[in-house]
Amino acid sequence: MDIKNEQSMEQAILETAERIFLEKGFALTSTTEIAREVGCNQALVHYYFRTKDNLFNTIFEQKFKMFFELVFNLEKLEELSFLDKLKHIIESHFDMVRSNSKLPLLIITEFSRRPEQLNILKEKLQAIPERLFEKLNAELDAEIVAGRIRPISLMDLIMTTVSLNISLFLLMPIAGEIISLNEIQRQFVVEHRREEHVTLILNSLRP
Amino acid sequence: MDIKNEQSMEQAILETAERIFLEKGFALTSTTEIAREVGCNQALVHYYFRTKDNLFNTIFEQKFKMFFELVFNLEKLEELSFLDKLKHIIESHFDMVRSNSKLPLLIITEFSRRPEQLNILKEKLQAIPERLFEKLNAELDAEIVAGRIRPISLMDLIMTTVSLNISLFLLMPIAGEIISLNEIQRQFVVEHRREEHVTLILNSLRP
DNA sequence: TATATATTTAATAGAGTTATTAATTGAATG
DNA sequence: CATTCAATTAATAACTCTATTAAATATATA
Lengths: 207, 207
Description:
mainly alpha; Arc Repressor Mutant, subunit A; homodimer; DNA-binding
C-alpha cells in the first residue's frame, strides 16, 4: 500500500515475497497472499516474475549465495593463531546464522523437497571454498603435527560448527515452547550457547 | 493395491500417509495422492480419518512421542560411570535419529509453520524427562565437584548431543550433493561422525 | 499534444484440493 | 436367505491457486 513511490513495485514484491517465503516456505506461500501484503494486483506478481517458481528462485539463489559468501568471508585474520582464527570463524558464523535465523530451515526444506534446485547451485558453490580450505587445512595440519591439536579433519570442524550453530535456531522455537521460555530467556540461552559452542569446540581439540 | 487382505485398509492408509508425509511434509501431500498410492478411493481416507489434519495429527503425535520416548529410554545403565553412560546416550540417540532420519525435519517444519500443534503436546512432553534429568543431573554435578568434568549444565550437554545428531541428517542430503558423495561415501561419513560426536563431546568435558 | 511503451488491473480458464453425500458392494448374523 | 452394518466408491460442491489475456491507466518520448 502506497509504497509505490518510495521504491519500485518490483522491489516491494521481492521483499514481501522474501519475508513470506522465509516464514512459511514455498508451498504455503501463494502469489495471491504476496500481492495482498504488497497491496497490488495478483497479476502484477506474475507480470514481473512470470511464475511463482521464478520469483522463489530469484530470492532463494540470492539468499543462498549471500549465506555461503558470508560464511567463507575470512579475510583479515592473517595475524591470528589457528585457535583464535577458529574462534573467530565460529563466532562469525554464529552471528550470521542468528541474523538470518529462518534461512537454514528454508534451505533445508526446499532442497530436500525440490532437489532439482541443487544442480543449479552445485558448481557455483564448489568454487568458493577451495582456496580458503587449503590455507586453513595447512594450518590445522601444522598444529596437529606439532601436537597442539588432536588429529581431526577440517571437514569435521566445519560440520561441527555449522551443526551447532544452525541447530540452535532450528530447535529454539520448539524447545523454548516446550520448556516455556519467554523472549528474554531465549536471548539469554542464545548468548550462552554462543560461548558454549566456542568452548566446546576449542576444548575438544586438545590432544 | 491388494494389500487389503493382509492388513486393514485403515492401517495401509496410515502407513502410506506416514511415508509420504515424512517425504514431502504436510502441505505437499494430498489425500488424493495417499489414496492413489494405497490403491483405494480418495473418500476412504476421509471416511477413516475425516480430515487431512486429523490423519496428520494421528501420525505425527505417535511418531513424536515415539521419538522422545526413545531418547529418554535410559534404563539399565545403572552400573556405568557417568562418562560411559553419556557415551551410551549419545550413541543411542544417534542410532535412533539415523533410523528415523526424516522425522526431525518434519517435526521442525510442522512446528514452525503450524505452531498450534505445540500446545497439544506440551504437557505430555514436560512429564517425561524430569525423573531422568534429576538423576543424571546429580551425577553430572558430582563429577564437576570432584573436578573430573568442567562446569557445564546437563541442558547444554543435551542440546549439543541433539544438535550434532540431527544436523548430520539434515545437512547430509545437501552437503553430500554439493560435494558429490555417493551412497557408500555418505554411509562412511555417517559412521565416522557417530564416533566423532562421542569423541568431541567427551573430550570437551575435560576440565 | 499525440503516440508509443510500461505498468497495473479485472476477469477468468483450468487444474488441483478437501470434504461431503448418496449409492453400491461386501460381510456377518440371526 | 434376508437383513443389517461396515467398507468402498462415484460424483460433485466449494474452494484456492497459478497463470494468462485483454483492457485500462500511467509515463515517457518525439
